[in-house]
Amino acid sequence: MSEALDVVFTRAESRALTVLDAWRALADRPLVPYQSDLDAFLCEDLPPVYVSPEAYAAAQQVPEAFATAWVCAGCGEAEDAGVFFWTLSRDQRVRVCFLIQNEGGRWTCRLHPFEFEKTRNPLPTGESGE
Fold it and tell me: What is the C-alpha separation between 30 and 43, in angstroms, rounded?
C-alpha cells in the first residue's frame, strides 16, 4: 500500500474485480454474532472487529455498502484507529466481503472474513429509522 494509502501494489497481476467478485460468491463464511455490549464481532482468528451500532444496523438495511464501521472515540479520527468494511446483504445474513482495520496506524486488510445474521430490528436503541 502506498504511503498515501490510496494505491495497493501486488506482485501478481489479475483483474481486481474478478478476484473480489469470486470471493463474494464463495460458500458461507464463519457466522459470527455481534456483541452489542462490546460493539464488536469476536472472531477466533482475528482481533476484535469493532463496529458501531449504527454501522451494524446500516449494513443490514442496504443491499451492498462500503462504510466506516467504527472510529476510536479516544483518537477521534479513522486515520488514527478505525474499521472499514464492504458488506453484501443476503437472505438472512450479511457477508463482510472486505475488512480494513487500522490499529494505531497499522492497516490490515482481509477478504471475506465472516458473516453475521440479520436481526429483526437492527436500529440502535432510541432511533426510529425515519
Answer: 9
